[in-house]
């Protein structure tokens, strides 16, 4: 039997699932929004970040992950997240990055966000993994390639999280997964598993929680 490249991450066993549930059941708090590298909080704990093109569902996913309806602000207006937002749960920072690609803002403002994004990804030593969110309905687009290449160059391991899985028909899923796997093949920093999620139904959320708590073991 041929093993597909970039398989879907297996569902966690009961112990890992429960560990992830308990970890995120405790309160996650907003720390600060950062608009310049000088404003970053101390690099004193494990850090993960969520990146993705505008309106891919980063804020909604963070809310589903932490079980909080309004921890991260979600909007139907692309480009609303205009800063790097830090959230803290015990010994972990969860970081919501500005959406890239189309943004409902002046070009100069968008360019400023992108410079901040690049500086952060290239210079944060405690960043264990970037979770790059990809809309299941569209797969990896050209605009995603820039950040994937940036992560390669910065030697930041990244894992693709496919969002809005409830919006795609089963017959279209395999085609989408093939496209994503093909696009990731040339990226050296890509973690070799995919996570398929839906913030609406909760599918894949236990898997993502378990993956994140596993990163804490790496210290």
UniProtKB/TrEMBL annotation:
GO process terms (BP): division septum assembly
A Pfam family: MMR_HSR1
Organism encoding this protein: Meridianimarinicoccus roseus
Segment forming the signal sequence: none
This protein's name: Probable GTP-binding protein EngB
Gene3D superfamilies named in the record: P-loop containing nucleotide triphosphate hydrolases
Family statement: Belongs to the TRAFAC class TrmE-Era-EngA-EngB-Septin-like GTPase superfamily. EngB GTPase family.
Gene name for this UniProt entry: engB
Domain of life: Bacteria
């Amino acid at each position: 039997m041929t093993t597909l490249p970039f398989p879907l991450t297996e569902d966690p066993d009961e112990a890992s699932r429960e560990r992830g549930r308990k970890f995120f059941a405790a309160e996650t708090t907003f720390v600060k929004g950062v608009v310049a590298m000088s404003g970053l909080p101390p690099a004193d704990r494990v850090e993960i970040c969520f990146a993705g093109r505008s309106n891919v569902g980063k804020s909604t996913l963070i809310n589903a992950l932490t079980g909080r309806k309004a921890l991260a602000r979600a909007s139907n207006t692309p480009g609303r997240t205009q800063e790097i937002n830090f959230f803290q749960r015990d010994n972990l920072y969860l970081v919501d990055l500005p959406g890239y690609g189309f943004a409902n803002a002046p070009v100069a403002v968008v360019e400023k966000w992108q410079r901040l994004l690049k500086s952060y990804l290239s210079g944060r030593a405690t960043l264990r993994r970037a979770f790059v969110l990809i809309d299941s309905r569209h797969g990896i687009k050209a605009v995603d390639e820039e950040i994937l290449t940036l992560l390669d160059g910065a030697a930041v391991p990244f894992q693709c999280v496919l969002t809005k899985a409830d919006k795609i028909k089963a017959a279209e899923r395999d085609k989408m997964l093939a496209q994503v796997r093909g696009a990731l093949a040339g990226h050296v920093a890509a973690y070799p598993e995919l996570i398929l999620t839906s913030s609406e139904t909760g599918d894949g959320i236990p898997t993502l929680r378990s993956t994140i708590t596993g990163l804490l073991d790496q210290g």
